[in-house]
Design a protein that fits this description.
heterotrimer, A alpha+beta, B alpha+beta, C alpha+beta, A: alpha+beta, Beta-Lactamase, five-stranded antiparallel beta sheet, 5 strands, B: alpha+beta, Muramoyl-pentapeptide Carboxypeptidase, domain 2, 6 helices, globular
């Protein structure tokens, strides 16, 4: 099982992206997307933004579970208070695990934002942030 | 490895934060990142302190400092801004921007702290109540004194503060007597509204009465899109 | 006044005579100021340091009156007492922290303040641009505050940071040096 994760800013701009493979059931944590699949990932996630923008007014929750499907892939979404979107592309249902992953990332995002030198919509380039997101992925996904 | 840099992304490229006023140098201290160094940090960390990601977000939740510290800091912020602007309106805009930057951070922090039960506001009344209670309480230790809807204009609401802390502790020099430091608070409110996708303008107005000489009204004027959406949501 | 007595005074005043405010509001406000300076000076961190020091100095000139009014402290007998008063009363009453006084020189004219906590720097990480960590003293306003405050009580001091956790150092340490006592007959700055 491979995952593609993106954090999208308020202007539909990507501020962070990563790939993981599952660490469950003997998985080694390395993503295995076929090359063709790779370029599709961004498009799938991007197009799901339209759906997020609609759905977000119908529900007050931050964790929006599966918002879009494409073939065998699903896009799950977490929307922060400031309208920053965490989008996870995955091929199997794993609601609770994904929720926990998003919760950890929300903690990391908020810490990033509390830094006065970080502005909303800036790319997140911290190596520590990247490491911790991957740690969370390893833990839950 | 962050792949976004290497692929031709369909995403709109990063655009500057609206809180950075037009006309100011757009070069924020650059985060110089080439592909190769995008994940390796050049930052040094003390062995005792590690990074901001290791510090718990609730650590300073109940911490207090003296009001005087805030007053002195705020006063200096005003003094500094005053030297770089032309006139009161500009100065209030600068204060608004500072407030805006704080409001953006406060919004995420407050929602994060609500934990699993956190919910995003989707209705005008909801977001305004969030501001008058949760946001106000976290900064000023008390809720706002009132919330009213304009009788004449569908897109206007008023948040009332009988004695804004920023005005009570700041002594404004006589030549700046028209300055309303509550523009700072207006910025905080505006940031929360913007962040939650209720865009609008927030301005601070002094409306002194005999009993309440420092009474201030924050006029919130929502964008048309907000009013439209609100009526669609029914 | 001994260190313990100063600590007691600081605690007491903090508990009974100080109006308090949410610390995070101050942290965020200070952060916004520093970030704004970095934008205004286009990343010239040395200028930012100077500006922060100057702002602190302006604050210090006014802060002393507030401090004396709240604490009713009399004149310090010597520079060692001044140091303890700054650390245990001054910082306590304004920032609710008590940095440690250490590393005195043998002539008793220079000491360090070691900050275990620094509310101004909470949540902060310096820009990863290869320069900030070598050039910016994030909390430099505090140095100016000390300089301004002490000037108002007839002491000309130099205060500067020697190390900062934000720079990856092990501690945050400010070095304070008594340059000279400002004689009443001579205006400060003249010899």
């Amino acid at each position: 099982m491979s995952f593609y994760f993106a954090i999208v800013g308020t202007k539909d701009n990507p501020i962070y992206e990563a790939e993981f493979g599952t660490s469950k059931q003997g998985g080694d944590g390395v993503a295995r997307f076929r090359e063709e699949q790779r370029s599709m990932n961004q498009f799938i996630v991007h197009s799901s933004l339209d759906i997020v923008e609609e759905v977000q007014w119908a529900t007050p929750t931050m964790y929006m579970k599966c918002v879009d499907k494409f073939n065998n892939l699903q896009v799950s979404c977490f929307l922060t208070a400031g309208n920053i979107k965490f989008l996870l592309l995955h091929d199997q249902k794993a609601d609770d695990a994904i929720r926990q992953f998003f919760t950890d990332v929300y903690d990391l995002y908020t810490k990033t934002l509390m830094n006065p030198f970080y502005e909303v919509d800036m790319r997140i380039t911290s190596g520590v942030f990247d490491g911790k997101v991957k740690q969370a992925a390893k833990k839950y996904l | 490895m962050q792949r976004g840099d290497s692929l031709n992304s369909p995403f709109v490229p990063f655009s500057p934060n609206p809180s950075i006023q037009q006309g100011t140098p757009t070069s924020t201290p650059p985060l110089k990142h080439t592909l190769s160094s995008s994940t390796s940090s050049n930052l040094r960390y003390s062995s005792s302190r590690k990074s901001i990601y290791d510090r718990h977000l609730n650590r300073s939740q109940r911490s207090e400092l003296s009001k005087a510290s805030f007053a002195f800091l705020f006063g200096e912020m005003v003094q500094y801004a005053q030297k770089r602007v032309n006139g009161i309106a500009d100065l209030e805009k600068k204060l608004n921007l500072h407030g805006y930057s704080i409001g953006q951070r406060l919004l995420e922090l407050l929602l994060w702290r609500e934990g699993r039960s956190a919910k995003r506001e989707t209705r005008i009344l909801g977001i305004l109540q969030f501001i008058t209670t949760t946001v106000y309480r976290s900064i000023f230790n008390k809720p706002a004194d009132g919330l009213e809807k304009s009788r004449d204009n569908e897109d206007e609401y008023m948040l009332i503060d009988n004695d804004p802390m920023v005005n009570s502790y700041i002594s404004v020099p006589k030549e700046m007597s028209q300055l309303n430091c509550a523009a700072f608070v207006a910025g905080i409110i505006e940031a929360v509204l913007d962040g939650c996708l209720f865009p609008g303008r927030v301005t601070a107005h002094s409306v002194p009465t005999e009993q309440l000489p420092a009474k201030t009204v924050f006029l919130i004027k929502f964008d048309e899109s907000v009013i439209e959406r609100e009526s669609v949501l029914g | 006044m001994s260190a313990t007595k100063a600590a007691r005074v600081g605690e007491d005043v903090w508990k009974t005579r100080i109006d308090k405010v949410n610390a995070e509001l101050v942290t965020l406000t200070y952060g916004s100021i520093v970030a704004q300076l970095c934008r205004d000076f286009e990343g010239d961190y040395l200028e930012v340091n100077k500006q922060l020091e100057k702002m602190g100095y302006n604050i210090g000139l006014r802060l002393i009156e507030d401090f004396l009014a709240k604490t009713n402290m009399g004149k310090c007998a010597n520079f060692r007492e001044t140091a303890e008063t700054i650390a245990k009363v001054g910082f306590k009453v304004f920032l609710n922290i008590t940095p440690t006084v250490a590393n005195w020189t043998t002539d008793n004219k220079q000491f360090s303040l070691i900050f275990e906590e620094n509310p101004l720097a909470d949540f902060v990480e310096l820009p990863d641009d290869g320069r900030a960590q070598n050039e910016l003293w994030y909390s430099n306003m505090l140095c100016g505050v000390l300089r301004g405050t002490l000037e108002m009580v007839q002491m000309q001091v130099d205060a500067h940071f020697a190390s900062d956790i934000l720079r990856g150092n092990e501690v945050t340490e400010m070095r304070v040096t008594l340059v000279r006592i400002i004689d009443d007959e001579l205006p400060p700055g003249e010899d």
